[in-house]
Amino acid sequence: MKSKLTISIGSFLLLFSWLWPQQELRPYKLINADTLLVQKVAEEYVTTLSGNVHLFYGETEFFTEQAELFEKQKISRMLGNVEVYDDTLSLYADKVEYFRKQEKLALQGDVFVRENHADSTYRTFESERAEYWREKREFYADENVKFYDQREEFHGSCGDLNYFLERNYGYLLQKPVLKVVQADSLQISAEKIEYFEDFKKIVATFNVQTIANDFIINSNFLIYFDDEKKAHFVGQPSFESDFADAWAQEFRVYFQKNKIKKAELQDSCFVKFRTENDKEKLNWIRSDFMELHFQDRKIRLCEAESNVTSKFLQTATAERDFMKNRAAGENLLLYISPENKLEKIELKKNVKGKYTFEP
User: How far apart, in whole angstroms, are the C-alpha atoms of residue 277 and residue 82?
Assistant: First the structure.
């Protein structure tokens, strides 16, 4: 059995204290609606608001084109250009359902969320669906998720985003990709990416690929420290660039002024590289520890320490003779020109080797 009652906004406000008792948590307050319809459906009052709807639940403000309010179930359904303003969050969607008992907002269709920070910067999220749990301050989004952080200067995408506002922590799943603009425009992809705002770090796990302007690093684990502008790679990391490839048990990469400054390789280090116009990377160095120093995104100095072995091969051309050098020592310095030409090789302590020359 369904009954209908159409009343004016003024009359509705007079009946307001009867339909929604004052002792109720987060009481409802209607500011404006072009039309209002009250129906009683199965012992429950259902209020339908249409046109320029503006209302409050406690301090949370809502704007929409149409809304249905279920008094007994404590559910509000809003449709059409929905806007929600709650503390530091502004939420927009085609459709929003508000479950007052659970303090849950379910958003669907062109979801856009903006979080404002105390320093006037902001963070945004876009997706097809999202949930916001008010009391727990938890936000979840899925389907074509995109995000941007103005203060930290990173943005990216994923299939599933989980963000806990009180803990300043979030993680990304389902093909997450994160681009760190500050650090040589790093692009990080992995099976899972976590962001710790309080600790200023990003953690990526399993099948991690880090792409910069001129190199790619693959690993199983990555920690990026924003304050130190340092990236730490473990889990069979490998480095690949046009000039050199490298492997070790552990990589540490440092950035300065948005460019890679230095890479440290620890344990079982192996680097192979090419010189000048050689197409293949025929030269190599092995050691226990190694540092690669960069200038303008190019390796200019390679320093290897402890149990160093090396091979340098110069192929014959019309301008140069063939030369092969196999050498070992405790310390090696390799100087490289911007044109990827070997400028100088210094090998120190317990040096031994073999040189081969051919015309």
Answer: 61
